[in-house]
Task: inverse folding
């Protein structure tokens, strides 16, 4: 089997490359950049800008033949400090939509030239596409797959994800392309961005706690009572592979954890892992919706998959890795 991983220089993409290699695939990785935190284990790694359409059919084929599988992770992406401020909205919408349009257009061209239509494509959507009005109560957010409409995502990032999942569904309907669409809920773990402004809450909190002294204080955006769930990267990769390896269910489906915590609780868990007493200083900052949690009923039923690890176990792995990154950068 062979696969191409788009966004292979990023967090989830680089982990997927490792997994596919372990599973015996021939893998081509494509990204604007090489992975930041380790070498890529891909058989080939191509530096390319997927907003450019000219090379796209070459990138998505090997010896003139389409790849067996495509994993589409490439997007303009970041945590709350990147996607919820509004400062990057035009880039997020334009860049990510252009990538998805180009990929699907090239797949159609390849179907026409090779007369083959057997490639499966996975699209990484996001829980950010769920309507804000169902996520106002931090104790009872509703993120079941069928709650998506009437649509009202709270960010342009979420709107682009919703547009693109519809784009993949329409190419499936009209061109028979075999798509699998997931809505990821906050994936975290080692080798994820941990500084620089695009990091997400678990990595940012691990970094702040690691850099704080015992009995110290860290800054948290908002009152910290907003709720979220977080899925450890290995579990995300396992669910995604399971999704790709079957041919009866295509999504959209949530891939996430149902262990919902407040951001203040995330700070407590991280402090316990670090063996430090840390208090939170609440400051103004972008926070996103009040509450969000994955609903896993559909994925349990269709793929017999569920998360296994506790948040604390995932934070232990992530904290250890971020602490070593901080040490190495000194
Ligand atoms: P990431 O930012 O680490 O990886 C995305 C990669 O895409 C980056 O390496 C980036 O360089 C690459 N890329 C961006 N524009 C490109 C272009 N024009 N050409 C080629 N490569 C380009 O993000 P991630 O956390 O690994 O997320 C992967 C996917 O999963 C994204 O689509 C993201 O929206 C989605 N997702 C992630 C999460 C999460 O919690 N990490 C949650 C929901 C959805």
Result:
């Amino acid at each position: 089997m062979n696969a191409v991983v788009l966004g292979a220089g990023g967090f989830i993409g680089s982990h997927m490359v490792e997994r596919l290699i372990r599973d015996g695939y021939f893998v081509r990785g494509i990204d604007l950049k090489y992975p930041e935190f380790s070498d890529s284990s891909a058989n080939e790694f191509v530096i390319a800008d997927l907003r450019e359409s000219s090379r796209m059919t070459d990138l998505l084929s090997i010896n003139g033949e389409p790849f067996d599988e495509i994993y589409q992770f490439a997007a303009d992406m970041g945590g709350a400090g990147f996607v919820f401020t509004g400062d990057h909205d035009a880039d997020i919408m334009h860049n990510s939509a252009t990538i998805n349009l180009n990929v699907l257009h090239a797949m159609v061209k390849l179907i026409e030239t090779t007369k083959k239509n057997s490639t499966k494509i996975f699209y990484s959507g996001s829980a950010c596409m769920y309507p804000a009005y169902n996520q106002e109560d931090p104790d009872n957010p509703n993120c079941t797959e069928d709650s998506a409409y009437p649509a009202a995502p709270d960010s342009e990032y979420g709107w682009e994800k919703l547009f693109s999942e519809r784009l993949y569904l329409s190419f499936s309907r009209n061109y028979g392309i075999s798509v699998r669409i997931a809505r990821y809920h906050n994936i975290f773990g080692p080798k994820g961005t941990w500084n620089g402004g695009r990091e997400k809450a678990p990595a940012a909190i691990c970094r702040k706690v690691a850099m704080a002294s015992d009995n110290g204080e860290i800054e948290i955006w908002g009152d910290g009572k907003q709720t979220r769930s977080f899925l450890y990267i290995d579990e995300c990769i396992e669910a995604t592979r399971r999704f790709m390896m079957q041919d009866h269910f295509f999504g959209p489906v949530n891939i996430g954890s149902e262990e919902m915590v407040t951001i203040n609780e995330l700070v407590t868990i991280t402090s316990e892992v670090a063996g430090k007493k840390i208090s939170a200083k609440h400051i103004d900052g972008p926070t996103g919706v009040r509450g969000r949690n994955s609903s896993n009923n559909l994925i349990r039923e269709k793929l017999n998959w569920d998360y296994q690890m506790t948040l604390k176990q995932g934070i232990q792995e992530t904290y250890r890795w971020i602490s070593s990154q901080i040490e190495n950068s000194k």
